[in-house]
Amino acid sequence: MLAQLVRPPSGSASPPSDDAGRSRRETHPAPKRGEVRPSLVLAGIVAAPLAWIIQICICEALASHACFPTEHPLSAPELTALLRIIAAVSAGSFVVGSLGLVAAWTSWRAARNEYADSDGPNSAGLRERKRVHFLALVGVLGSFIFLLGLLLTAMAALVVSPCARW
């Protein structure tokens, strides 16, 4: 079995190559697999939801502590810069979510190009190309939805007073 990894089986023509790395890429079932970075796919799927969760956790914790430091609620927050802090956290979260959308979009375009270059429905590696294309598309759609959530959460936090009763 080790001999098969080192040299091709007899009777099959090996692709011409000037170096071993290029030969491996040409014989791999998905030769353009290197165009889609797994880290970009992961960032596209995870960045925007994490940014939204962090925004909610930080803003809600700050608002609750500033408005309810004891058993009785206050009419105005103790922390005078609360709205500026909430705006800064929301802006930073929106930037992180936007970077996640850019990563998802980049990986989706690379996966789309790789998927379009497939040799046909029976080509080897088609399942892997479909999987990467699907995950990249999930990242684009999910990032867009969570960016909308980030924007609406920031608007709610800045429009409604943090110490008001809901």
Shape: rod-shaped
Helical segment tally? Answer: 5
Strand content: under 5%
Cα-to-Cα separation, first versus last residue: 69 Å
Oligomer: single chain
Rg value? 25 Å
Secondary structure category: mainly alpha
Helix content: 55-70%
Largest sheet: none
- Number of strand segments: 0
The structural domain count equals 1
The SSE string, one letter per element, is: HHHHH
The low-pLDDT segments are 1-7
Give the rounded overall mean pLDDT.
Answer: 77
Question: Could you characterize what this model shows?
Answer:
The structure is a single chain. The protein is 67% helix and 0% strand. The longest helix has 35 residues, at 82-116. α3 runs parallel beside α5 and α4 packs antiparallel against α5. The protein has one domain (48-166). The protein has 166 residues and is mainly α. It contains five helices and no strands.
Characteristics:
166 residues, mainly alpha, Cytochrome C oxidase subunit I, rod-shaped, 5 helices, transmembrane helix, membrane, 67% helix
Condensed summary:
Keywords: Membrane, Transmembrane, Transmembrane helix. This is Cytochrome C oxidase subunit I. With 166 residues, this protein is mainly alpha-helical.
List strands and helices in order, with pairings:
Layout (H helix, E strand, L loop, with lengths): L1 H5 L13 H8 L10 H30 L14 H35 L9 H34 L7
Helix pairs in contact: 3-4, 3-5, 4-5
Organism: Caballeronia terrestris
Keywords: Membrane, Transmembrane, Transmembrane helix
Protein name: Cytochrome C oxidase subunit I
